[in-house]
Amino acid sequence: KGHPIPFGNLIEKPVYKNSILIGDAAGLVNSVTGEGIYYAQRSAEIVAEAILKDYTNQGKLDEEYSNNLNLFLLPELSNIKKKRNMYFKIFNNYYLAKIVTYFMFKNVKYV
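The chain above was modelled as a monomer; its predicted structure follows.
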């Protein structure tokens, strides 16, 4: 049985005590397409780097991971979410959606 994809529901604190959330568990999912494998793999890389640095910094794992998420992944996901919200506002209007769709596909040639 599947589990719902968390479209754009980013977790504020992905590190709690001895738990670290990555991928869709941390809400790192493209809120338009639902794609999450890239974000799962990239957040795993980020947490691995943070764990390696934590051996020298002692206790800074949560800061390191959160800072790197904010630096590398969250700006992209935030922009995608803003665009999604804008598109939904535009396409929520039936007639506007019909006009845009017409112009998008009027020159498409099917082979």
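The CA atoms of residues 69 and 75 lie 9 Å apart.
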